[in-house]
What does this fold into?
Amino acid sequence: MRLREGSGRDVIAALPPGVPVIICAGLRSDAADLERSRPLTRIVQKPFSLMALMDSLEDPLAQAKPDR
It folds into this structure.
């Protein structure tokens, strides 16, 4: 996907820290700094299986749920 202005990195940086983000990247190293700086960010390296995607979603979504 191409954005008219900025980059996907800019979009992620503008999100509040508590918003879970899943990055689908061809090279893990391209987005590794975002994963380190944002606790609810995970990288799924392409190509990936449905199970790998589900595993990546599980932890950030559980952490992002408000206490009830």
